Amino acid sequence: MSKKNKDTQSDRTSTKGAKIKKRQRKAEKLSSKKRDRKQVKASARKAKGEAASKRVEPTPQEVAAKAAGVVADAAATAAVAATEAIVRRGSKLLAKTDRALTVGGLEASLLKLFPADTAEAWDRTGLLVGERALPLAKVAVTLDPTVAAIEEAAKAGANVLLTHHPAYLSAPDAFAPERSVALCSGAGVFAAIQCGVALMSFHTALDVSRQAQAVLPNLIGLSSKNKVLSPIAKSRSLGYGQVCTLSAKDDRAEPLSHLAARCTSVFGRAPRVWGRFDASIKSVVTATGSATDLGKLALSQGIDCLICGEIRYHDALDLASAGLCIIELGHDVSEFPLTAVLADAVAAYGVAADQIIIIDQTDNWAYPESIRL
């Protein structure tokens, strides 16, 4: 072999060896990468296994709490969505619900008009007998809660008897089925429970109210001065004795006989009159029920005449002798109009007119000359 051929063969062998070594290095590099990937995967599996072994399972309480939270969040979301829907829809489209009228609701409504804290400390105000939660049937209204009135209310289908005078002031000491509290102090309470009729009254709380103040002046045709002769401590505008004049101009006068005749015409009963019939009357004080100390107050302020329900004999005698004229209507006569005030208050609560019954007690007594034999 020539030297040239030997050199060519040697070059080919060297080139071939270099390629083999190159492939070996490449193979070693790929093998190294595979080993590295396997090691990484193995490390990841090992770490995952260690984490799983360290994981603490939640307790049933924690699971329940999480579930409750999810439910609460869902409920809150639903509530917000519902509220937004109502706002978008508008309040006019909401269904109207009827208000349930109850015994207690009626009492609460009347107490707003005639608050218990404006009544005398010795008085009874509001519900005396009955259950506040019961629904109203009909409401009977009258002056006094007699056994006869309670029975009449029940017969008319009422389950409330609303009166001006209370069923009692001092608590009854016995209860029995008698026809009058004169026979047993608790006869009225017994009848009310037996008949299923609640007893409710507004006495002095009504007497001092603005509604009651307007009754006698309006009926007799007097002009009120919007002044109370004997105000209560709570309010100067509430109290007893309404100061009036015969006309808005304050200069009109008429004799006592004319004013007394007007009262007879209005109330249908002849009043007891103290004073000279020709006495000139310009100023008047009116009071339903008992006059108490209003006579002395009227005299001290130069009032000409007191129109009241009743007054003690010796008080009237002394006041008349001092120059104060008095027209005594009768306790019940002066207060019968207050039943209309109570009936209006019941209607204001929402009771229909045909569900309000007025029990007439104007025939409790009579003059002999009015009876035909």
Describe this structure in words.
This protein has about 375 residues and is of the alpha/beta class. It folds into 4 domains: about 1-55; about 60-95; about 105-205, Udp-n-acetylmuramoylalanyl-d-glutamate--2,6- Diaminopimelate Ligase, Chain: A, domain 1, CATH 3.40.1390.30; about 220-330, 3-Layer(aba) Sandwich (Udp-n-acetylmuramoylalanyl-d-glutamate--2,6- Diaminopimelate Ligase, Chain: A, domain 1), CATH 3.40.1390.30. Helices cover about 45% and strands about 15% of the residues. The chain is built from 13 helices and 13 strands. It has helices at about 5-55, 60-90, 105-115, 145-155, 185-195, 205, 210-215, 215-220, 255-265, 295-300, 315-320, 330-335, 340-350, and strands at about 125-130, 140, 160-165, 200, 225-230, 240-245, 255, 270-275, 280, 285-290, 305-310, 325-330, 355-360. The strands form 3 sheets. Strands 5-6-10-11-12-8 form a 6-stranded mixed β-sheet, with helices on both faces. Strands 1-4-3-2-13 form a 5-stranded mixed β-sheet, with helices on both faces. The protein has a two-stranded antiparallel sheet with strand order 7-9. Helix 4 links the parallel strand 2 (about 140) and strand 3. The longest helix has about 50 residues, at about 5-55. It is elongated, with a radius of gyration of 48 Å. The protein starts with a helix and ends in a 15-residue tail after the last strand. Residues about 85-95 have low confidence and may be disordered.
Summed up, what is this model?
By secondary structure, the chain is of the alpha/beta class. It has helices spanning 3-54, 60-89, 103-113, 147-155, 187-195, 204-207, 210-213, 215-220, 256-267, 294-300, 313-321, 331-335, 338-349, and strands at residues 126-129, 138-142, 158-163, 198-201, 223-231, 239-245, 254-255, 272-274, 280-281, 283-290, 305-310, 325-328, 356-358.
